[in-house]
């Protein structure tokens, strides 16, 4: 799946950032990204690709779920969020929080036992570096420019929704 992040031309005049996913079958889903939320989506990408997750946010999108549906209430959403996606969110949030300079110590090491004890220190460092690199690339984009990432998903194996 191709993931395209486009930097909005003017956040204040309703020209926000956008996230577009083009699935391998050619179908497309997209959404505006709320101001400052791109780092969260980058963190999802980094966590899911580093840990080989197939049933978290981008894996579910690759399987055919539409991005706007994730914002719907549990009763309105046309699918159930799998456990892997729920378990991924705290990791994403911790990784994202580490990027803020106000945190003096690493968060992922101290919380990895609670969330996913199988995450190695090497994977944590890889995720940190990959997120930092994506954010630097994003910060260097001019309004109207975009960046593309690729997400691989084994649809035959992972249709668990």
Which structural traits does this protein have?
single chain, 161 residues, alpha+beta, 4 strands, disordered C terminus
Question: How would you summarize what this structure contains?
Answer:
Helix content is 40%, strand content 14%. With 161 residues, the chain is of the alpha+beta class. Strands 3-2-1-4 form a 4-stranded antiparallel β-sheet, with no helix packed on it.
Beta-strand content bin: 5-15%
**Number of helix segments?**
5
Extract low-pLDDT stretches: 157-161
Enumerate the strands of the largest sheet in spatial order, edge to edge or round the barrel: 3-2-1-4
* Helical fraction: 25-40%
* Overall pLDDT confidence: 86
Q: Assembly type of the shown chains?
A: single chain
How many structural domains in the coordinates? 1
Main beta-sheet annotation: 4 strands, antiparallel
Shape: globular
- N/C terminus separation: 18 Å
User: Pairing-aware structural class of the strands and helices?
Assistant: alpha+beta
Rounded to an integer in angstroms, the radius of gyration calculated over CA atoms is 16 Å
**N-to-C SSE string, H for helix and E for strand:** EEEHHHHHE
Number of distinct beta strands: 4
